[in-house]
Write a structure and sequence with these properties.
Layout lengths: L8 E4 L5 H12 L3 E6 L2 H15 L3 E5 L5 H11 L5 E4 L14 H29 L2 E6 L12 H21 L4 E8 L5 H14 L3 H9 L10 H11 L11 E4 L9
Helix pairs in contact: 1-2, 1-8, 4-5, 6-7
Length: 260
């Protein structure tokens, strides 16, 4: 299927590796030029070169912290203020329990995982509306459908973003702009490695045992792959997805046990 987005330009945040890279690679495979972003320049430049070589698209790499005002300004400047596709993404806040966190912890989580994507949408969606076409995909978490106790900071911040998208997506759809959320479950990324490491420390088991234990909780029996996540993102950004508005789409291997 031709996704109909060859020659479009996308900003993909936190995309030197993991789910962000999976999305960038899938879009590049459809002929989309990219602005990619991450905090560390080394892995980011390596990712950019890989994408250029594999897909022949233009890739601009901006090493900056997208969760800060300064970092966002750098990234937005690199886009020229004009993109057709926005994929927001940022590392999740640390795990813990509700008694562990104070106000500063919640503010940091909300800044990174709610207010940063909101600020990027406010900066870029008006231009999409003027041009009559745009796609926004926010990478959130399965925790907005089924809260995860040890990820309470993520539950809180990402659910706030979900509420913002629910209202905003309906206001911009008539201008040809779609906004949707992709909700990953456990994928084979550095985030999974970090969470598995916590299980290793807590239970005194090996990393292989920790992974097997978590994989057994997923009906699919395995962790997801960044490539399949990226493919779903690319479809939501395609010309065929213009009637998908304000949705929260789980990619969790069946992990959330719910009818709706």
């Amino acid at each position: 299927m031709d996704f109909g987005i060859k020659g479009k330009k996308a900003l993909v945040c936190a995309s030197s590796k993991g789910l962000g890279y999976g999305c960038a690679a899938a879009l590049a495979g459809e002929g989309v030029d990219l602005v990619i972003n991450a905090r560390s320049s080394g892995p980011l430049e390596e990712a950019a070169e890989t994408l250029r070589a594999a897909h022949g698209v233009n890739v601009v790499a901006v090493a900056a912290d997208i969760t800060t005002d300064t970092g966002r300004a750098q990234v937005l400047d690199a886009t020229g203020g004009t993109v057709d596709i926005l994929v927001t993404n940022a590392g999740g806040p640390p795990p813990g329990m509700w008694t562990d966190w104070d106000r500063d912890d919640f503010i940091a989580a909300i800044d990174a995982n709610m207010l940063t994507p909101v600020a990027l949408m406010q900066a870029l969606v008006p231009g999409m509306m003027e041009r009559g076409w745009g796609r926004v995909v926010n990478i959130t978490s399965q925790s907005v459908k089924a809260p995860i106790a040890v990820l309470g900071l993520s539950n809180t911040a990402r659910t706030g973003l979900t509420g913002f998208v629910a209202g905003t997506s309906r206001q911009v759809a008539g201008a040809g702009v779609t906004i949707n959320n992709l909700l990953p479950g456990i994928h084979a990324t550095d985030r999974a490695v970090a969470l598995d490491g916590g299980v290793v420390a807590a239970k005194g088991i090996t990393i292989e045992e920790a992974r097997a234990e978590r994989a057994a909780t997923i009906p699919a029996g395995r962790y997801g792959q960044p490539e399949e996540f990226g493919a779903a993102c690319a479809f939501l950004c395609s010309s065929h997805a213009g009637f998908i508005i304000g949705q929260n789409i789980l990619l969790d291997g069946g992990g959330v046990n719910a009818t709706f």
